[in-house]
Amino acid sequence: xxxxxxxxxxxxxxxxxxxxxxxxxxxxxxxxxxxxxxxxxxxxxxxxxxxxxxxxxxxxxxxxxxxxxxx
Length: 71
Hints:
Elements: H1 2-12, H2 17-24, H3 28-35, H4 43-53, H5 57-60
Helix pairs in contact: 2-3
């Protein structure tokens, strides 16, 4: 579920894995593995990606349809 939602958000926000990798400090190779479903992000990286994309981790994991971050 993460991969599908991650790719959709990349397209919607017109972002590249290179940009997210550079801004979050996660390696570009690892980001590509997330994008292609080869690996799943660690909890720490999931949080970095969710924060960067301004969505909740639950949304990225497909646990809710609401992308809003609980504040």
